[in-house]
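Re: beginner question about structure tokens

> Can someone show what the tokenized structure looks like for a real chain? I only ever see the sequence side.

Sure, here's an example I had lying around. Input first:
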Amino acid sequence: MVNSIEKEVQDLTNQLLELVNLYCWNDISNNLMFILSDISEVKGENFFIQRANRNKLNKKKTLKSFNEVLINLKEIYNSIYDINLYVYKVEKHQTIIDIRYFLKTNLDSDFFETISNNPPMLHCKITKPPYLKNETEKFDINWELGGMRYKWNMFYWKTKYKWDKVNLSFTNLK
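And the corresponding structure tokens:
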């Protein structure tokens, strides 16, 4: 199973880039770099706090080539329960992919017994911003990193949400 990890991660990377091309308007560089993240290292009571904490951690990480990241994954392969690939950042000359893993040792002991010999589950995901108006609208894959466009879209989304809530309460009074 460890020998198949190279092909699995390569296929998953290709699937992730296809998702980004389908849903995002960014131009994706084929110069791929990777970072590794233990999912359990990020704490926070909600998505926004977790995202901020993850971004702080990711900024400090060393970028790795595909081969370097494979060496690291092979070392812990038998301990991994789940592997998720996300695009961390798209820049003009490189695309940084965050390979997030969750270790079997972080699971409940009863559940651990049932899956201890299973190979890791593999997923690739993109996170859609909350302010999207519809499913067909393309978005900036870098939205989670913040910036002026993100701040404006979030301001508009929150204002519209509050306005819609006020309108709904007035409608219910009639």
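Each token stands for a local structural state, so reading them left to right follows the chain. The mean pLDDT is 85.
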